[in-house]
């Protein structure tokens, strides 16, 4: 009988939703927007963190040697650096290679062809294995080094923005989740008010609070589950609309970065969380009403 009543409560809740489609759609729409905003921000931050992780794996330090340093000495210095435990790899770029790359990418091939002597120095591209900041400071002490280029400041600022964005996502999730909770609670409260006489008769017949509360709990869970599904649909549509232009933009910079949406496990977690949110909102309102009516009867 307990299982039969659970099944009856679920079917009855779905029936009440279908009997008032416009009111149900309005409640589900408000909840879906409240859920989609923090979820969208979370998805955006996840993609930015993934992109930042790809960038951070390329932590190369450019060591421009003094102009009088010969290529043979540059290669010998590269061998010495490869033996260090904090160095992962060292790539030697000769002045000829640098000039050829500059001609290819700068569009100044004709102007560079008029230059008689190659003004470019030898270049060592060092990939750190450990602390890149400490390695960059150490490379600056080399007698053969002229300029050490290491742009780590922007990555540190990016990490700071990502931490701030994550905290902002949690704050928005808490605030908008509370809003969704109140929306479900108010909807269930109106449904309770329309069934006051029915609830009173059940209480007179000795029905337990759990028996009375169960249909409203399933009603709140149905609202939450539907809102979670609509929120996922909105975010999926946004993902598909942004994926192509972002992919073209990344390709223009020589990157294969592409947006990544929610995987099936994450989608199931979102649906379960939305249903639990609706269940909680209905439970709070129904429990408050039953305590009031029980107190009045006492």
Automatic annotation (TrEMBL):
The chain crosses the membrane at residues 21-45, 168-188, 216-238, 267-290. Residues 171-290 form the ABC3 transporter permease C-terminal domain. Signal peptide: none annotated. Keywords: Cell cycle, Cell division, Cell inner membrane, Cell membrane, Membrane, Transmembrane, Transmembrane helix. It is found in: Cell inner membrane. Pfam families: FtsX, FtsX_ECD. GO terms for cellular component: cell division site; plasma membrane. InterPro entries: ABC3_permease_C, FtsX, FtsX_ECD, FtsX_proteobact-type. The keyword Cell cycle applies. The keyword Cell inner membrane applies. Residues 60-135 form the FtsX extracellular domain. Its main location: membrane. Part of the ABC transporter FtsEX involved in cellular division. Belongs to the ABC-4 integral membrane protein family. FtsX subfamily. NCBIfam families: FtsX_Gneg (TIGR00439). PANTHER family: CELL DIVISION PROTEIN FTSX. This is Cell division protein FtsX. It comes from Lysobacter enzymogenes.
